[in-house]
Every structure is written in structure tokens, then in C-alpha cells.
Amino acid sequence: MNSKSEIINKFKKKVKLIKFHNNQYFNLDNPKISDSEYDKLKKDLISLEKKNSFLRDLNLLESLVGATPTNKFKKIKHLKPMLSLSNAFNVTDMGDFIKKVQNFLNIKGKNIELFSEPKIDGISATLIYENGVLSKGLSRGDGTIGEDILANLMTISKIPKKIAGQEIPKILEIRCEIFISKNDFQKIKKNFANPRNAAGGSLRQKNPEETSKIPLKYFAYGFGAVEPMNFSSQYDFLEKISNWGFIINPLSKIVNGIKEIESQHKKIDSLRSSLDYDIDGLVFKVNDLELQKRLGNTSNSPRWAIAYKFSAEKAITKIKNITIQVGRTGAITPVAKVEPVTVGGVVVSNATLHNEDEIIRKDIRIGDTIQIQRAGDVIPQVISVDLTKRKKESKKFIFPTKCLCGSNTKKELSKSTNKEDAVRRCPKGYDCKYTAREKLKHIVSKEAFNIEGLGKKVVDQFWDLNFIKEPSDIFRLDYNKIKDLEGWGELSIENLKKAILKSKVISLEKFIYSIGIRHIGQENAKTLANFFISIKEFSKLFDEKKRVDILKNLLELDGIGETQVYAIKNFFTNEMNTKITINLIKELSISNYSLNNKSGKLSNKKVMFTGGFQNISRSEAKSIAENNGAKVLGSISKKLDILVVGSSKPTKKKIDQAKLLKIKIITEKEWNSMLNS
Ligand code: IVH
Q1: Residues lining ligand 1, CB < 6 A?
Q2: Domain 313-389 is in which class?
Q3: Which of 143, 362, 427, 503 could serve as a FRET partner for 191 with CA atoms 20 to 30 Å apart?
Q4: Domain residues of the chain, as ranges?
């Protein structure tokens, strides 16, 4: 039996502990325990007080455990979205990048001047100067909406608070990377996992005084909104802002051609360990800002830049077993379970074997000694097998032809190449519990519904407990049941509730992407949303009769081909998919598709191109048309408003068809003057 004083002591100890964790969570933004551990601690305290009424007189709990976290920082919409970068891992990827740029700009074979900068492994932030005065400072947030961290950024002494000089734009938005130097990190390392983590924690302090205690630095690398715009190249931009007092990275350089790219990459890689800040690759940017503007962005990243990562870390290990994993499209991926090995600071125990052909090609077997590599955030891969270490009795691996659910798997014929796919698939969709589970994981992912707190592990847990079997279940969760689960408490449930509620409002393009139709990625989802505009129109796809006509029309959209149309048809022909989609729609508020640039000169016009243009590629012409509000079609129909005839090899048949349908036909020159009018 515990004496009263023992209980009081125990209680006070726990109070001290929760105070410590409150400070870590709310003030330092560096939680030391998981939400569930925190919840458990809180529960323990409350039940202790309930059981022992004398504890209540100490009045210790009320102020401590009542509060749920507030949204610490004000949310502010970025003037221009903060995008991410696509990655290159080798010289081939870099060659592809250059080709893509050349193709888009229609300048095949011509040199493109690039600007190379180290990719700083820190935290991105943006600084807005109005008439030379620092007025806003935001974190990246989700790229569209950032957090107001101005007070914290103000504590970084080298960030100019006011800029003076010639030609200072009225609005100047500077994008920069905030970091902590390796040296400074040594002094505080006991509190943080790595320098990046320390910089992030420091930047998100509630109290700027705490930020000022951790020595932050920055490099400015880019711009957002600038009015008026008076820079001509990335080089020119950096030179100007450096004169205005911003810190820029000294290891930047103009490079031409793949040879110079490679040698710059090697050179900086060799300097990497001697630098006082972490870098994880180089960023190559098209130097000319006019060209950057023409290249524009895809959904997530600019077409004019790429991150060329430093080479992957490699390690030797042994295959213990080969199992299969089922993806959200039913794709069966073989996975090597390997003896745990540390690769680039991370313990790896799984490596992907891609598909059946890859296993046959490399003759990979259970028991083999292999070399694996891990590059960036991608799943580790098996690079080679050490045949000298193979035992005599080892047997070839026979690839299973059944899915984990027991169904037979199939290799499909590709619509475009008419060849058999390398990947085996389970055809059961939501009827296969392994596929269904992965579909749910896709739905909650960042690019889709983006439900924080409902990650892959939680989906697995809720699936096993029958809480979530199809997407709409997410919005009908019984939180009372969750409350009793190990690892869940008030705080984590409250956060989950909020995140789910927030995700109920979703745009049509995100919704279309989320439901996970094969071959419908973010770009295609946008094209489809631009076609359907509203969920009401999209829902007509559920009706078999209406579907036939709609699918024909979809073929007219630029970017949507037979493969996509076939995939959409397949998806909705499956009654289960349709039912599940309808159930989901009932839970949501889906907003109509709206173009960023509604007031464009071609607003709501349907345009088609035939023939090549003099100076720009078809892709660029399409992107210009879309930026001006147009829909770009891929074939002639009554709905078409304008056919633009390029000067190089237009198709006569298309022009004749358009004439017949009395569609407005204009030349490349007329098109240009229409846009420039
Ligand atoms: S340019 C996407 N240049 O990398 C817009 N980014 O993966 C163009 N970063 O969010 C980015 N050093 O936080 C650029 N020299 C550099 C960079 C850099 C670090 C970060 C930045 C960005 C992320 C993109």
C-alpha cells in the first residue's frame, strides 16, 4: 500500500515530466515522446488525481493538461507557390533534363546555359520586402499556404531588414534556405537529431527569443513575386541581391553542357565534407529568366530546374527471403528481406526487386550476397549479386503467380505498345484486401486528401480493426472506439478529427487524382477536371450509357490517350469502384475546377494545334494556351473554337475537317498577335 506522501511524490514527479514535455512540444517544437506516450502520461495523471482526492488540493493539474495545442502561427497564402524540385541521380537523368528543356523550347541540339548552385539541406523560407522593407516572412507550409514566422526570421542578423540601393523593386520576394552550421550544431547536438532538424525546430519557436539562442544562417537562392521585374538571369539576380546585402552561396557557377555539369558535380561533391553546412546535391537552373518563364511549371516542380543529388550510398548484405507486396493498382512487387544494414545513416531491412523480369535478368536468389543502394528518399534497390558467394545448393527463385489474396495475377497488354507488361497485377481492386488497403493509403497521402495523423501505419491499424474498409469510412470514424486503443488519446484524436474535417473540402482535380484511377496522375487529373468542371458532370461517368459518349469526348483532350480512356472505362465498369466513389462523394464538399487565370484572353475557348510552330514547341504552345484560360483539344470536333495552323507541316485533313465544320482557322502569326493584343 502506498502512503499518502509516496503518492504525492509520484504525482509531483509525473507533473514535472509533463511540464517538461509540454515545453518540448508547445515551445521548443521538439517533442521527445510520441503523441500517444504523451496521452498516456496525461491519462495516468488524471486517473491518479481521480483516485486520490487529496491530490486535487495541490491544484497542479488544471493548468497543465487542459490545453490542446493551438495553431501557433498565422497562416498566410504565398504570393506565388513554393514548389519542390524533381531529382536527377546520374548523368543520364541530367541528359534527359537538358533534352526535355530543349524539346519544350523547340531548340533541339542548341546549348542551354545553366546555373549551378549547391542544394542546401535546410529549411526553406520566403522573405517579402515592400518598398525595401522586410514586411513578411513565411515558412514553406504546404507550398500554397505558409506560416507567418517573421518574428523568428528577424532574429537572423544577416537577413536584411531594410534594403537600399538602385532599382529596388516595389515588391521583392526572396526565397532562401535557413540552416545551422555543422560547427554550431556540435554545441547543441544533444537536443536534436541533425542540423536540419535543429534549424526547423528553432525556426518554429513560439518565442523568438528561443530562436535567437540557436545560431541560424541562410543562403538566398531564388525569388517569388517581384514587381517590377528587372532581373535577366539567375546570375544577374544573385549579383544584384548580393549587392543589396543578401548572403548568396559562393560555390555557384555558370555551366554549359553535360561535361561541365559532371565536373562541377564532382568538384562540389569532393568539397562536401569540408563545408560547414550540409548539402545533398546541386541544383541546376536554366540561367536565362525569359526561358525560365517560358518553361513554366508542372504541378509540383519547375521545368527549368533540377536537383542533381550526390551519389547513392551503397552497402553489402544478404537476402534472407523474397516476398511480394501488392500496390494500389494491384501491381505485385517482389521485395528482398535483407539482413539489416546501415546505408547512409538509415537501417535498411527491405530492398525492392522491381518485377519478375528483373529477378530473372539478375538471377537473384534467396541466400545471395548482394550490393544495395539508397538514393534520396527512394526505396533501396538491389544493384548486383556477388555470384562468388553463392552456395551450390541455391535454387532459382520461382515468382508466385498468385496474389497474397489468392487470386491469379495477370500481365496486361499495353494499349500503346501492344507488348506484355513487365508487372503482374491482381485484378480484384477493392475486392482484394491487400490492394484495397494500399488504395486507402493513397487516398490519405500528401498529394491526395493530405490527412495528417492518418499515415500508412494508422491505415493498417484501422483496417485490421475494421474501422476503415473504404474511403468514405474515414469520414464516419467512431472516435469513441479509437479512444480505447493503445497508443491513442485525447490529443492525437483531437488532431486527427481536425485533419479529417479539413480534408472534406477538396478541389475536383485533387478528388479525381485521389480515387486512384490507373494512368491518372496529377497532371491528367487536372486535364480531366478542366473538362468536367464540376463533380456533377464527372459523376455522369457512373452511368454506363452516358459513359460511352463521355469517353469518346475525353479522347479529344490533349494528353489523354487510349491508355487513359481505357483505364477510366475499366475503373468505372467495376461496380465496386463506382459504388465506393459515390459513397465517398456523399461525405465531401468538392469544389469546381477553376483556372488560376480565369480572366485569360482565351477563357473557355477550345483550341487545337496542327503543325509545328516556328519558335516554340507544341508543349509550350499548349501551356501558353492553358495559362490564358483555354482548353486544348487533341482532335477536331464541333466543339472546337479555334484551329491554329503552325507553319511547319500542318495536317491537311484536319484543316479540311475544320473548314467543313466552319471552325475558325488561324495562322501561327495571327495566334501570336491574338495573345499579344
Ligand atoms: S531552387 C522549386 N535552389 O530545395 C523551386 N532550392 O526541393 C526552386 N533548396 O524548397 C528551388 N538549396 O528549400 C533551389 N540552391 C537552391 C536550393 C534549393 C536548397 C531547397 C529549397 C526547395 C527545395 C526543393
Answers
A1: 83-85, 117, 119-120, 124, 177, 221-222, 283, 301-302, 305, 307
A2: mainly beta
A3: 143
A4: 4-63, 75-309, 313-389, 429-591, 606-676
Question: In this structure, are residues 491 and 39 in contact, taking their beta carbons and an 8 Å threshold?
Answer: yes
At residue 524, does pLDDT exceed 70? Answer: yes
Choices 2.40.70.10, 3.40.50.1100, 3.30.470.30, 3.30.2390.10: CATH for 75-309? 3.30.470.30
Domain spanning 429-591: which CATH class is it, in words? mainly alpha
The residues, any chain, with a CB within 8 Å of residue 207's CB and separated by 6 or more, are 27
Q: What is the Cα–Cα distance from 24 to 382, expressed in whole angstroms?
A: 40
What is the tens place of the pLDDT at every residue in 286-329?
999 999 999 999 877 899 999 999 877 788 999 999 999 999 99
- Give 448's DSSP letter: T
Question: Would you call 627 helix, strand, or coil by DSSP?
Answer: helix
CATH class given for the domain over 606-676: alpha beta
The Cα-based distances of 455 to 198, 441, 449 in angstroms read 24, 7, 11
If one counts every other C-beta atom within 10 angstroms of the C-beta of residue 457, the result is: 10
Mutate to test the pocket of ligand 1, among 114, 123, 175 (most ligand atoms within 8 A of CB): 175
Rounded to 10 degrees, the C-alpha dihedral 529/534/535/541 comes to -70
Burial of 337 (0-12, 13-18, 19+ CB in 10 A): middle
The correct CATH number of 4-63 out of 3.40.640.10, 2.60.40.1910, 3.30.2130.10, 1.10.287.610 is 1.10.287.610
> How many residues are present in the chain?
677
Q: What atom of ligand 1 comes closest to residue 305's alpha carbon?
A: 8
Q: Kindly report the pTM of this predicted structure.
A: 0.66
Q: Please, are residues 555 and 562 in contact by the beta-carbon 8 Å criterion?
A: yes
In this structure, are residues 124 and 140 in contact, taking their beta carbons and an 8 Å threshold?
yes
- pLDDT tens figures, 338-379: 999 888 667 889 999 988 888 998 899 999 999 998 866 678
**Alpha-carbon distances, residue 545 vs 259, 548, 560, 572, 637 (angstroms):** 57, 6, 21, 12, 21
Pocket test for ligand 1, best of 174, 283, 289 (most atoms within 8 A of CB): 283
| 119 has catalytic annotation | yes
